[in-house]
Amino acid sequence: MPKIAVDAMGGDHAPQAVIEGALLAVQHFAVELVLIGQRDTIERELAKHPGAPKFDIIATSQVVTMHESPSAALRKKDSSMAVAFDLMRRGEVDAVVSAGNSGAMMAIGMFVMGTLSQVARPAILVVVPSMGNGTVIVDAGANVDCKPRHLVQFGLMGSIYSHRVLGVSQPRIGVLSNGEEVGKGNDLTRAASEQLAAISINYIGYVEGRDIFNGKVDVIVCDGFTGNIALKAMEGVASFAGAVLKSAFQKNVSSRLGYLLSRKSLAEAYRRLDYAEYGGAPLIGLDGVAIVAHGGSSPVAIKNAIRAARDAVNQEINRHIAEALSEADGTAGVKKEGLPRKLWERFKSKIESLGEKTEPTSGSEERRKSDD
Hints:
Layout: E1 3-7, H1 16-28, E2 32-37, H2 39-46, E3 56-59, H3 70-74, H4 80-89, E4 95-98, H5 102-113, E5 123-128, E6 135-138, H6 148-164, E7 173-176, H7 187-199, E8 203-207, E9 219-221, H8 224-249, H9 253-273, E10 281-284, E11 289-292, H10 299-314, H11 317-328, H12 347-351, H13 364-371
Parallel strand pairs: 1-2, 1-4, 2-3, 4-11, 6-9, 7-8, 7-9
Antiparallel strand pairs: 5-6, 5-10, 10-11
Helix pairs in contact: 1-10, 4-5, 6-7, 6-11
């Protein structure tokens, strides 16, 4: 049973929404939770739920605020976020979940855990609703400036996640661009596209923003600047569409009647579009499992972020990523269990000719220095 540290102080609605989400999670999933934060505050919230199961509570004296800089967050050694990662570093928990400051999560996660061997840069992976099982987008905001090899690794890591967690047998990978034609894009997308095509991991070429939802592609790779703009635009469109529908159904008596007749179908449609159903965003490539939930997470969103952490642990996502990158670099055996065969076709032979191969290093600090 996965043991997960939950940052009880992280998020716009913490600790109430976090505690309620944790209670929902233990009712629905086989997980053991450790609540991290200010003990009195956590116990006061738990007292509002008579008969609630007992949780292990790790008391901390500091909180990372939502608008705090990553450098300031790193100086708070006794914050709920820092202590949660330290528990994972010591092997006392299997994963960390927080709805707190995403920049601080990335900074503290990198500082405490480092990256998986041969991962040049970790990234934020998000799953958005689509006509298929959901579309994976990597990167959604961690790396503003990227090199082609980073996008290649994003594609591989996203493909493994799509396969192992979402159940897609052979994930289709595309590079987000301003058109499908080969000549579109910029220097980064053209180079990344060429390299992804060379390693033959079911790469389908350029995709456009509209393809995020239509089921054409399973994994979309981009730099964090582009990915974050796309993600925030999607959130804005979803809010706008909801407001328009609400206004339309309140227009007159017949529209209200139409709502009453169709509300079950509308509720199902809303459920599919609701970010809360997809939980949180894994910091993929980190040497540990860390899930960043939306800052405005409801209890349901926290519950599903915990589910995402459970799935990543149970499916051994990090082990599969490490094996894939080691295989690509010619330093591992030939284990491929459960992964799509096309992930491995020509990978080892082609990667040598790309000129962007990641060299294995002895630690996360050396990897960061070599990447700058």
